[in-house]
Design goal:
- By secondary structure, the chain is mainly alpha-helical.
- Helices cover 74% and strands 0% of the residues.
- The N and C termini lie far apart (48 Å).
Length: 418
């Protein structure tokens, strides 16, 4: 009969993809990564309170934080090899537990032994460094390819939230808890990061008989990275931008805010705008799929040049703040497609090693930029340094866009012309 409903016609043409945050395995991974991020960002601020209480000198604080960076840099490549050799959840668990156990040692040594604090900080940094490539590879293990961009956006949102919540939460708790207790609280966060990650999905690992030394396995990751010209070019651009634009933010923004704009208002507004822009960028890129994803990502990375450019021009404070907001949005418009492309293009059994190269160069060389910016500003003047930083931030991504495969962050010829 004509009035009889047709059941098949009532079915939707296609069901909306299920959000990754509704998947228990990814949610566990996301919470673990967030906990590790909170622990990482909170510790320097907590130790800063020890300086205010005169339990720690500024020099000792710098030594401890430097020791943590050394541990991070040593552990990143080792963690990449281990995360490709063994179960990735086990690597996160071991690294997180090491950081969790070292944290109360650091807390107990405050005001007693800077040497013990430095050793504990090396272990904490090593735990952080080993976790980074393992978390990156675990994301690819537990999330299907069609939803990895959404998953990476959720992970980077967690990072941005922790940059706000970590220091703020530490400051709030400092009103009721002593510094050693606050340090131990970051150890509990590391414990959560160790115990929460889910087991990874099926992946291809090298047979035990074919495994070589750590150096040989790391070199295998280097060879895999060299197969992807877009990766080498993008990593070079990212490293250049972080070493110049990021360093200008860390060193020259406070000076310019004080000397040019007459106070700390521009510093506070610019750093807040950067984080707000990054949050907005992560939300946008969670759903936006540009046709030329690589070029769009590199254009976002180039937006970081707007931050030092505004300071170089001594523009109106609103222009400077807008430039930092654009820089924050742009860095996430780069990060999320970048991580997604690495997970898609790199051979799965080598993913953690290639990811470790990403973190080792992009974040590992940042302290070098920070160390050089201040002497360069004294020698040539802040204006010259800011102008050079802005130029590098614009030109490095533009040069990377010329590399084979850069248009789509894919091997040349695979997606070109799409």
């Amino acid at each position: 009969m004509s009035g009889t409903p047709v059941v098949s016609a009532a079915r939707p043409a296609a069901e909306a993809p299920r959000s990754v945050l509704r998947e228990a395995s990814f949610l566990r991974l996301w919470v673990a990564a967030t906990a590790s991020g909170l622990a990482t960002w909170a510790l320097p601020f907590v130790l800063g309170f020890a300086v205010l209480e005169r339990a720690l000198t500024p020099g000792a604080l710098g030594l401890v934080l430097g020791a943590r960076t050394v541990g991070f840099l040593i552990a990143v490549p080792v963690g990449g090899v281990l995360a490709d050799r063994y179960a990735r959840r086990d690597v996160v668990r071991a690294a997180g537990l090491a950081a969790a156990l070292a944290t109360p040692v650091l807390a107990a040594a405050i005001g007693r032994s800077v040497a013990v604090m430095a050793v504990a900080a090396v272990v904490i940094g090593a735990g952080q460094g080993a976790c980074r490539p393992a978390f990156q590879a675990l994301t690819a293990d537990v999330v299907d390819p069609g939803r990895r961009q959404q998953a990476n956006a959720a992970m980077t949102l967690a990072v941005r939230v922790t940059t706000l919540a970590g220091p703020g939460g530490a400051a709030l708790l400092a009103t009721v808890l002593p510094v050693p207790a606050l340090v131990c609280a970051t150890g509990l966060l590391w414990l959560a990061a160790a115990l929460l990650p889910p087991p990874g999905g099926p992946r291809v690992a090298a047979p035990t008989a074919q495994r070589g030394t750590y150096l040989r396995e790391f070199a295998e990751g280097l060879r895999e990275a060299r197969r992807h010209a877009w990766f080498l070019a993008g990593l070079g651009a990212l490293t250049a931008v972080i070493a110049t634009g990021y360093s200008a933010t860390g060193v020259l923004l406070p000076l310019m805010s004080r000397d040019t704009y007459g106070g700390e208002a521009v510093l506070a507004a610019a750093t807040t705008a950067y984080t707000a822009g990054a949050l907005l960028g992560a939300v946008v890129i969670a759903r936006w799929r540009p046709r030329s994803a690589g070029w769009a990502a590199l254009a976002g990375l180039a937006c970081y040049g707007l931050a030092p450019l505004g300071l170089w021009l001594e523009a109106h404070p609103l222009v400077v703040v807008a430039g930092y907001a654009a820089a924050g949005a742009g860095i996430e418009l780069f990060n999320v497609p970048w991580f997604t492309a690495i997970q898609r293009e790199v051979e799965p059994r080598l993913l953690a090693r290639v990811s470790s190269l990403d973190f080792l160069f992009s974040y590992g060389l940042a302290p070098v930029g920070l160390a050089l910016i201040a002497p360069a500003a004294e020698a040539f003047g802040p204006g010259v340094v800011l102008g050079v930083c802005a130029a590098v931030c614009f030109l490095a991504p533009a040069a990377a866009a010329l590399a084979p495969g850069a248009r789509h962050f894919a091997r040349a010829g695979r997606l070109e012309g799409g």
